[in-house]
Design goal:
The longest helix has 15 residues, at 2-16. The chain starts with a helix and ends in a 15-residue tail after the last strand. The chain is built from 2 helices and 20 strands. It is mainly beta and 285 residues long. The chain has helices at 2-16, 252-259, and strands at residues 24-25, 28-29, 35-36, 41-43, 53-57, 64-65, 78-84, 89-90, 103-109, 127-132, 139-140, 152-156, 164-165, 174-179, 188-189, 202-204, 223-225, 234-235, 246-248, 269-270. The protein is 8% helix and 24% strand.
Length: 285
């Protein structure tokens, strides 16, 4: 009887012990120096000397990244958040004051809105932001990248659920390259999407459903890539592309339009026949 009583007391004591703090996200380790709470939230408070790279991937339980999650991690140069399909919310201000950040990748998640990157304040040249394969993000809003970096940037925004890019979306940026390829539902890019931006030098809109390019802000483009862009049946005036050097296009008539300057200023080139014969020049740029 005493043995049963002792065993019962030991069992009750074990049951009353507080649960251990989780050290891992389901299916993936919790990256140092972060804490991964039972409610699915992630925090990575600093300062942490020497930490330059942080990778969060292959997690089934991460659901939220809180505001100031990476606060004071001043030496971080790379953050990768990938293959976390249950991550549905990144709070505004999650990425704050990261002056040495060079590369931020957020790919294959469940987030519904473009994450707030306007408080990163990176001072690195050619900052790279990669947002890809996030199928629930439908809109690129105004001023989405303002404050992210005070130097030049490369935006790799491909394979998402984008349907619309709003006016002034790239305001306040100096764009080297903008990749919008493989956004299969992207139909509309506001005519003032590039208003307030410098660049881009390279624009890739391949495999989208864009029906037209904005007529404002094309003068910086040196390379235009628009393969498998079957909905793009007309182009702005050739004079809008004052610095264009190379173009890879979908239709032969696109090619002809670029080779033959229109007689009327600001006229648009339209596809008359989808099977127009190729231009008698090779290569057709």
């Amino acid at each position: 009887m005493r043995r049963r009583s002792l065993a019962l007391r030991l069992l009750l004591a074990l049951l009353l012990l507080p649960p251990p703090l989780p050290q891992t996200l389901l299916g993936a380790p919790c990256p140092e120096p972060c804490s991964c709470r039972p409610d699915g939230a992630l925090r990575c408070p600093g300062p942490r000397a020497g930490l330059s790279r942080l990778e969060i991937s292959q997690s089934d339980s991460l659901e939220k990244i809180e505001a100031n999650a990476f606060d004071n991690l001043l030496n971080l140069s790379e953050i990768l958040i990938q293959n976390t399909k249950n991550l549905v919310y990144i709070e505004p201000g999650a990425f704050t004051n990261l002056p040495r950040l060079k590369y931020l990748s957020i790919c294959n998640t469940g987030i519904r809105k473009l994450p707030d990157v306007t408080k990163i304040f990176s001072s690195e040249f050619n900052f790279i932001l990669e947002i890809c394969d996030n199928l629930h993000i439908t809109t690129v809003p105004a001023n989405a990248f303002q404050g992210m970096n005070n130097e030049s940037i490369t935006l790799k925004l491909y394979g998402n659920g984008f349907e619309e890019i709003q006016s002034h979306a790239f305001n306040g940026t100096t764009l080297i390259s903008l990749e919008l390829k493989e956004n299969a539902h992207l139909k509309k890019m506001h005519n003032d999407a590039f208003r307030g931006a410098r660049g881009p030098s390279i624009l890739d809109i391949s495999s989208t459903k864009l029906q037209a390019l904005p007529s404002y802000g094309l003068e910086s483009i040196q390379t235009l890539i628009a393969t498998s862009s079957y909905s793009l049946k007309k182009l702005p005036s050739r004079e809008k592309f004052t610095n264009l050097l190379d173009a890879t296009l979908t239709y032969p008539s696109h090619c002809c339009a670029f080779r033959n300057l229109p007689t009327k200023e600001n006229s648009e080139f339209k596809i008359v026949n989808w099977w127009t014969a190729p231009c008698p020049f090779t290569p057709c740029l």
